[in-house]
Write a structure and sequence with these properties.
Order of helices and strands: EEEEEEEEEEEHEE
Helix content: under 10%
Strand content: 25-35%
Distance between the termini: 39 Å
Number of strands: 13
Structural class: mainly beta
Low-confidence stretches: 89-100, 102-115
Oligomer: single chain
């Protein structure tokens, strides 16, 4: 995983990413929470999960709650941009596998990653302030209804 000129080798297991120096990966940038997200590496599979960060975790421009990462994926945490450059010896040219055409985009995170979600598709919860998709009826974190003005 790289961030600017820095890079980290993430071994098998769970790694927290955030502003705090107590994390496996410390990224001190505007909009990055103390404990922003976690990355789990297991048997060559890399998954990322948002930990209720205030401004959300984006993979390839899409707001995610939990997603699988592939070589070349770009992660945005606040003003920080990270990139996955290798997964357990995978080559840089290895392309992500496309999800099946009939997959449900609300249940399958791989499909959500393929959607083009922009800032116009995101609304912040009035109760907890976390980002949600406008089409969601309630906040994924606190469960309160999302009221759109």
């Amino acid at each position: 995983m790289t961030y600017g000129e820095q890079s980290w080798l993430l071994f098998e297991g769970e790694h927290c990413i955030g502003r705090s120096v107590a994390n496996s990966v410390s990224v001190d940038e505007k909009g990055v929470s103390r404990r922003h997200c976690k990355v789990n590496v297991m048997n060559g599979v890399v998954e990322i999960e948002d930990l209720g960060s205030r401004f959300g975790t984006f993979v390839n421009g899409s707001l995610i709650r939990k997603d699988q990462l592939n070589v070349g994926d770009k992660i945005r945490l606040g003003d920080a941009f990270l990139e996955i450059v290798n997964v357990d010896g995978a080559s840089e040219s290895q392309a992500p596998v496309s999800p099946p055409a009939n997959a449900d985009p609300y249940l399958d995170p791989a499909v959500t990653q393929e959607r083009s979600i922009t800032d116009d598709d995101v609304v912040f919860c009035n109760s907890c302030g976390l980002p949600n998709l406008k089409e969601d009826p309630a906040c994924f974190a606190c469960g309160k209804p999302l009221h759109l003005a």
